[in-house]
Design goal:
This protein has 279 residues and is mostly beta strands. The chain has helices at 3-13, 29-33, 47-50; strands spanning 62-69, 77-88, 91-102, 105-118, 122-135, 139-153, 158-165, 171-173, 179-181, 185-195, 198-207, 212-223, 226-233, 238-247, 250-259, 263-273.
Length: 279
């Protein structure tokens, strides 16, 4: 396929292919296998991408990397990596970087997060994002946008989270020279763990230019080191599933998602949290 056709395909599908400059988070095979419903989750490294408040609930220094090949197309490769660092009691910072695309079309993002907890069960946070877009023969454009969030543990079993992405309603210049809105999105989610084996998650999401969407999933632990997961989301309708293995803070997760119009996407992630014993 010629380069011009590749670029044309990107512009045709970009609204369906949640690229890295889209503020809607997309990282961690565990989260993707649960329908990408993760705003209410506490104490997990991958919350770095979904709710800046939740990084204050992580037990120790955490780091991770994630890759996916969207719809099994080499040109739609996406990868991210980051680290969460506790700095003071009940406070943490996070740094992340991600990249989507290929040599003729590349979206990249770097972000810095800060979270702080109060009273052991309530946390707030904010994230500063620096996004760039590089299109062959059109050069680079860039944008800065801000995310905010909070998370609270209503009980030992139930937590609630809220996140707002691109609250400053930033724009980025396209190849045609027009300024395009980066989506502004509000998301609320819950995570419910009725026992040590089961976790249920659900998110509601509202893009200011689109209807409300839903995502949710369930995780079941067959053993201390093995979990299975299934999830679903709409807008667009996507089914997902996967499994994870973990031991003493080391987590290896796999997932596959399926979108009827565009097909399958495999997801793989690896993370490690220091000082975390078992799951």
């Amino acid at each position: 396929m010629r380069l011009s056709a590749y670029i044309g395909l990107f512009f045709l599908l970009i609204s369906s292919v949640y690229a890295s400059n889209d503020p809607i988070p997309r990282a961690g095979a565990r989260a993707l296998s649960l329908g990408n419903a993760y705003v209410g989750v506490r104490g997990d490294y991958w919350s770095l991408y979904y709710n800046p408040a939740s990084i204050a609930t992580i037990s120790g220094l955490g780091m991770g990397a994630y890759v996916e090949q969207r719809f099994l197309l080499e040109e739609f490769n996406y990868g991210s990596a980051g680290v969460v660092i506790p700095i003071f009691e009940r406070q943490a910072i996070g740094v992340e970087a991600s990249s989507f695309g290929f040599s003729a079309y590349r979206e990249s993002k770097a972000a810095f997060s800060y979270g702080i907890s109060f009273l052991n069960n309530f946390s707030i946070g904010a994230k500063l994002n620096y996004a760039t877009l590089n299109i062959a023969e059109h050069g680079n454009t860039e944008a800065i946008y801000v995310d905010v969030g909070f998370n609270t543990a209503l009980s030992d079993e139930l937590s609630l989270g809220f996140a707002a992405y691109n609250v400053n309603q930033a724009q980025i210049e396209t190849a045609t020279g027009f300024m395009e809105d980066i989506p502004t999105v509000f998301s609320a989610g819950i995570a419910f763990t009725p026992n040590e084996k089961v976790m249920l998650v659900a998110d509601l999401q509202k893009d200011i230019d689109h209807p409300v969407s839903f995502s949710g999933g369930i995780e079941y632990a067959f053993a201390d080191v093995l979990q299975a997961r299934v999830g679903v989301s709409n807008e667009p309708l996507t089914a997902s599933g996967g499994f994870g293995v973990n031991h003493n803070g080391l987590n290896l997760d796999f997932a596959v998602s399926y979108q009827e119009q565009l097909g399958y996407t495999p997801h793989v992630s690896l993370s490690y949290t220091f000082g975390q014993q078992g799951e």
